[in-house]
Give the backbone structure.
Amino acid sequence: MKFVAFERAKQGTGASRRLRITGRTPGIVYGGTGDALLIELDHNALFHAIKKEAFHASILDMELAGKEHKVLLRDLQMHPYKQQILHIDFQRVEAKTKMTVKVPLHYSGEEESPAVKAENCLVNHVLTELTVSCFPADIPEFIAIDLSGLKKGTSLHVKDVTLPKGVKFVVKGQANPVLVSVSAVSAEAEADAVAAAAAAVPVDPKAAKAAAGKAVAAAKPDAKAPAAKKK
């Protein structure tokens, strides 16, 4: 994925604020053998770029002063409530240096698994990304995981997944964390789901009115018989 950046001459809080007013986003490129480099990017173009998954988990081609640089997104600072990118950090990529990156997990096949199809279970995606270590050329855009073999009472761990060649999981706390868990649906929850589905079905106004009339009629006491006349 390619984007264009421009060299930034001024730094500091005031300079960055003025830059944002003009529709630019301040940033920095660091790492590798070169010095840290101050850059700025068009905010609108950048805002559209960050919506794409590849911008967060793949090597990017940054065009700067007519030259192309390989970089990786490292940090993104957003405004607390505005749709505005305040600052962005990139790291230079060197072909012979291993990098630690977060790669998104793409799950598929759970609807066809015995756990869901035959045993009416819920499949919970515990993790949506995985921290891995590999050379830049081996960084995957995502890791595909097939869940079609899941069964009731089971779970899927990192060691159950075959990672792409050259890619290793980086342990942070748990050596073999759970990626996906399977839980059975209780009878009470199932009954609530059925009731909710029934409530969502549109009701025929005429039929409802007729049913209400019958219910009211059935609830009224029988009319009293006329009193007998005195002789």
Remarks:
- The two ends are 108 Å apart (CA to CA).
- The longest strand covers residues 67-78.
- Helices lie at 13-21, 43-49, 53-57, 114-117, 187-200, 205-219.
